[in-house]
Structure prediction request, 412 residues.
Amino acid sequence: MPQVPLLMPQLGESIAEATIMRLLVQPGDTVTADQEVVEVETNKAVMGVTTSCGGKVVSLSVSEGETVAVGCVMGIIDATEEEVERSGATPLAEGEIPAAPAPVSATPNGDDGAHFRTEGEYREGTPPAPTKSDRGLPVPMGVRGAHYLSPRIRARMDELGITEADLAYVTGTGAGGRITIDDFESFLNYVDGWPSRQASPMRRSVASSMQRTWRRPIASAGRPIYMAPIILHRKRHPRKPGYTLYFARALALALAEAPECAGYMVGGRILTPKRIDLGIAVQVADGVMVPVMRNVDEYTLDELIDEYNKIVSQARERKLDKAYMGGGIATVTNFGGFGLTFGTPMPLPSESIILGVGAVQKVPVWSDEVECFIPVEQANITAAFDHRVVDGGDIGRLMQRIAYFLEHPELL
Prediction:
């Protein structure tokens, strides 16, 4: 019969240990999946530790008052093969004898002695060094935590076409916040009958892109731009370039000076783009299309007008030429056209940066020359970027160059 370890779970991001307050079961007791069996106290709260599966408690290796490190074995539960499969619990390897956790204590030399237990150690039964640490210990890889989904839940998700991102709406009541099959089915019953519509292929494509984008650490930074120079330049221009084109051209010139801001991290390397191809976000029915202009830094604003008008028109009609699809290193999105003054746009999964443009506003700005506030037309721009590739200082300098080009449109 499989034996499943009762482990001290990760009870919080910075919690490395917990003190046993009460043992709610004894050897020989029968327990059910997700039953609270141990009450522990951390430096933040008193909470219960639950079982990952049902079965019979064989042994407990902790006692009340002991302080135990995260990841240590506190007891053993005998479970059936069917219960292990149903719950997704991880049993001990055949012949494995887990060591009892030693009380937590600091090491004499001042080293906190934190030991990050590997999956290999867990499988081989090597006892961890449960010593005090302020850094926090991760749950061993053999432990199924809040993000674990049992085969039964995954089968139901595949049947219904549900992704893991969709489960953000579901509150898990299992061990460590794990979503149980009952939680999953209760959520489905709860939303059954709500008004709904089938997501279009365009909407599903956008959802997939944004879900992949969010796997990276995306940060945002913004600043205002004085719009009077652009407004005056456009007013005098016989062909009235689109405002978004001004921002695309300014971004292209700034990235040509600092292409690393649009770099890609692949393993331990940061790749720098070879050319400045920029996407233009265009709102279409139930989604967004992003046609791409090539080598934007090599052509003047006047030379880009025809291409810009062409790709925007094609995108709105959803008849975009293949030559304008994909391959961009950054995108410009002008949400100011919808009256939005500020936003945090999301870069495409294939890009590391996106520039968002807000609506033009008249705001009061103090003038030292006349010693009073004067109305100034300005718009907020926001850069959302992959924080693995660049930091705030890099983006700050990039934004300064964008602002400089926009305030001197004759350079565009």
The domain at 3-144 is CATH 2.40.50.100 (OB fold (Dihydrolipoamide Acetyltransferase, E2P)). The radius of gyration is 29 Å.
